[in-house]
UniProtKB/TrEMBL annotation:
Residues 22-85 form the UDP-3-O-[3-hydroxymyristoyl] glucosamine N-acyltransferase non-repeat region domain. It holds the Pfam family LpxD. Belongs to the transferase hexapeptide repeat family. LpxD subfamily. It comes from Adhaeretor mobilis. This is UDP-3-O-acylglucosamine N-acyltransferase. CDD domains: LbH_LpxD. PANTHER family: UDP-3-O-ACYLGLUCOSAMINE N-ACYLTRANSFERASE (PTHR43378), UDP-3-O-ACYLGLUCOSAMINE N-ACYLTRANSFERASE 1, MITOCHONDRIAL-RELATED (PTHR43378:SF2). The gene is lpxD. GO terms for biological process: lipid A biosynthetic process. Catalyzes the N-acylation of UDP-3-O-acylglucosamine using 3-hydroxyacyl-ACP as the acyl donor. Is involved in the biosynthesis of lipid A, a phosphorylated glycolipid that anchors the lipopolysaccharide to the outer membrane of the cell. The active site is at H238.
Length: 355
């Protein structure tokens, strides 16, 4: 698929600068693009890379100089380049197939309009699927679940009983929603699982990454607020209440009964202990270990996590430790030498007798 640069400018809604007759064969990033390909630069920090790039043209903002290289000027570079990529590599959309004869659909299942259930999916009894829901192969939906309109479940997603998923959600492969929480009591010398009688309720416009897990509540629901985005390999334990529009990055672990406000960010591999409240718009840094409540808007770092201003002081001091260690050893030697000298002066001279 080829297109002239002038036509590509129309597609992305930008203003052409330079030769529009260039025949474009593809779009690629700065370091890979060749003479017949278009690249992009979203900010001035990429100016040198753009100058060195072999790309035939670039999609840029108005404050970036392209020299003699033809360009397309746009207000939002990322949005424009996304349109360009989709022109050359449109999304693969499988034809509508309705409910496959190779899917297993239980009793009293309510199906909305234009529902897609692919081969090998299993839908339990009393499940409700809204309009335009897509269920891919290998998905397991246990009895009593409800799924909102336009939600997509990719292959091998598992929903335990009574899970509720909102509208326009995306659950990626291997996500498990509603598994029994990790709650045990010691009875007669053995660990006996506590009853996990709650469920999980996911709000609208939530995305859950591959192989992430959200456990059901003990008696009530585990909640995830609307607009929250959860990366791959995230674990959210039972009874948690995750606020709206949170960003939870890969390998984060949130222990039971934790509550987060809206617009909280948790960076990769952060850990949150149980029964902690994390305030609105708080940020938990990568690999941090949160052991106590976090106020609104606070940035936490380290393990145990403390406000970032405190961690910076600690990190600065830690960086000085090797030099401080060398200084300490030098001072130790000086003290020892002074002690030896003092001891030598205190000893009586040879032949002296005590009075």
């Amino acid at each position: 698929m080829t297109v002239t640069l002038a036509r590509l400018a129309e597609i992305v809604g930008g203003r052409l600068v330079g030769d529009g007759s260039l025949v474009v064969t593809n779009v690629r990033r700065l370091d890979l693009a060749g003479p017949t390909e278009v690249t992009f630069a979203a900010d001035k920090n990429r100016q040198n890379e753009l100058t060195a790039s072999q790309a035939g043209a670039a999609i840029v903002s108005a404050d970036i100089e392209c020299g003699e290289k033809p360009s397309i000027l746009v207000d939002d570079v990322n949005e424009a380049f996304t349109k360009a990529v989709l022109h050359f590599r449109p999304k693969r959309i499988s034809p509508q197939q309705g409910v496959s004869d190779l899917a297993i659909v239980g009793e009293r299942v309510t199906l909305g309009k234009n529902v897609e259930i692919h081969p090998g999916a299993t839908i339990g009894n009393d499940v409700v699927l809204g309009d335009d829901v897509t269920i891919h192969s290998g998905v397991q939906i246990l009895p009593g679940c409800k799924i909102g309109t336009q939600t997509v479940l990719f292959p091998n997603v598992v929903l335990y009983e009574d899970t509720q998923i909102g509208a326009r959600c995306v659950l990626h492969g291997g996500a498990v929603i509603g598994a029994y929480g990790f709650g045990y009591q010691e009875v007669g010398g053995r660990h006996k699982i506590s009853e996990q009688l709650g469920n999980v309720e996911i709000g609208d416009d939530v995305e859950i990454g591959a192989s992430s897990t959200i456990d059901r509540g003990t008696f009530g629901p585990t909640l995830v607020g609307e607009g929250t985005k959860i990366d791959n390999l995230v674990m959210i334990a039972h009874n948690c209440q995750i606020g709206r529009h949170n960003l939870i990055c890969s390998q984060v672990g949130v222990a039971g009964s934790t509550i987060t406000g809206d617009y909280v960010v948790m960076a990769g591999q952060a850990g949150i202990r149980d029964h902690v409240n994390v305030g609105q718009r708080a940020v938990i840094g990568s690999m941090s270990g949160v052991t106590h409540d976090v106020p609104d808007g606070e940035i936490m770092l380290g393990a145990p996590a403390t406000p970032v201003r405190e961690q910076r002081v600690k990190m600065a001091a830690l960086a000085k430790l090797p030099e401080m260690r060398r200084q300490f050893r030098s001072l130790q030697k000086q003290v020892i030498a002074l002690q030896q000298l003092q001891n030598a002066h205190q000893q009586p001279a040879p032949g002296e007798q005590a009075a």
